[in-house]
Structure formats: C-alpha cells, structure tokens
Amino acid sequence: MMLFTEVRGLPVLAADGGGPLGTVTSLTVDVVSGAVSHVRFRDGALGRVGLSGRVGRSGRERAVPWDAVDTVAAGAVRLGAAAPCEGAPRAHHDLLGHRVLLDTGTGHGTVLDVAFDTRTARLLALFTTRGEVPAGRLRGLGDYALVVRAG
C-alpha cells in the first residue's frame, strides 16, 4: 500500500535501467473500476518537487497506462519492457485537493490523500478533511467534485 502523496515526485524509470524518463506529477483514477488507470509524469530529469509540493514545469506531461507499470516503490516507479508513453489522457481530475460531495448533496471536505494497492492499482481509502471514506463509496468524478455514496 502507498499514498498518492508518496508517489508524486518519484522518478519514472524505464525497464532497461536507463536514466529517469521524468517525475510523477499525479495518478489518474477510473472511478468506475475504483483503480488507478494512468501514471502521469513530466518528462525530463528537471521535474523536481519544490517546497510547495508541486512538481516543476519543465518538460511535457506524459502518461503511461497502469498496465505498463512494473513496480512502484518508495524510490521510483519502474515501467515494464513494453511501456507505451503517450500524451497525457484528456479526462483527468487530480483527486488530491478535490472537493468531496455526498450523493445527498452535502459537502464532505476535500481529498487530502488516497491509499492504493501498488500491485493491483485498486484504491483502498480516501482521506478527506472530514475523515476517511472507503474507496467502494466512489460514485463519480468531475470538474466540480468527487461524489461519494453517503454512509
């Protein structure tokens, strides 16, 4: 298990052991499956995390499907042998900092972090400013908010 905030800023390494391809900027989530679908990264070695916790703006944002990820560990995200790098997926909403609404319309704070299984990419729990939300309660994600089923 890892947290999204632990993955952001990690180097993305190719399977051949070459230098870093870039630095993780965020993870794309498919709410329907309840799993990470893509790893987004800024290509180039200069994409370092600054004091604000944000990744530098050098390079172009790229993405790889989760299926192309071999391992995720505290030191790096390592890609598999046939990892297709593509332009960043268009439908992306970063969960971190996103507003949370219950399906009853009541606000439930904002997302502080997300725990996920690094082997299966399944989301385990969301940590919001109002407490923990089990990943199985996710309903939808859009520009305005993440919608979760009321307890």
Summary tags:
151 residues, mainly beta, 7-stranded mixed beta sheet
Written description of the protein model:
The chain has 151 residues and is an all-beta fold. Helix content is 3%, strand content 46%. The longest helix is centred in the first third of the chain and has 4 residues, at 4-7.
List the helices and strands and how they pair.
Elements: E1 2-3, H1 4-7, E2 11-13, E3 20-30, E4 35-43, E5 61-65, E6 69-72, E7 77-79, E8 86-87, E9 99-102, E10 107-116, E11 123-128, E12 131-134, E13 138-141, E14 146-148
Parallel strand pairs: 2-7, 9-14
Antiparallel strand pairs: 1-10, 2-3, 3-4, 4-5, 5-8, 6-7, 9-10, 10-11, 11-12, 13-14
* Helix content class: under 10%
Order of helices and strands: EHEEEEEEEEEEEEE
Q: Let me know the largest β-sheet.
A: 7 strands, mixed
- Flag low-confidence runs: 46-56
Q: What class do helices, strands and sheet pairing give?
A: mainly beta
Q: Could you give a quick summary of the protein structure above?
A:
The protein is mainly beta. The protein has one helix and 14 strands. Strands 1, 9, 10, 11, 12, 13 and 14 form a seven-stranded mixed β-sheet that branches. Strands 6-7-2-3-4-5-8 form a seven-stranded mixed β-sheet, with no helix packed on it.
